[in-house]
Amino acid sequence: MTADTARRIGALLDRRWPPRWIKFVDHTGARTWVRTRIVECVHESTEAQRSRERAFRRACKREAKAERRWDEAED
Length: 75
Description:
Radius of gyration: 19 Å
Low-confidence stretches: none
Largest sheet: 2 strands, antiparallel
Number of domains: 1
């Protein structure tokens, strides 16, 4: 979600009497309704963040592969 949407949802969750449902448009343009009581985390997901996450996962995979013993099966 965008930073503006995350801020708006955060403000709704911080209210003394939060609404039962939170309504927003996600990054794909879909209208989304979520029960307030099940919201555990709100965060934005930018292109740069997703790119860094992919690079991190690739690096972790390379490390795991380099540490694998020769007699272990490959994935």
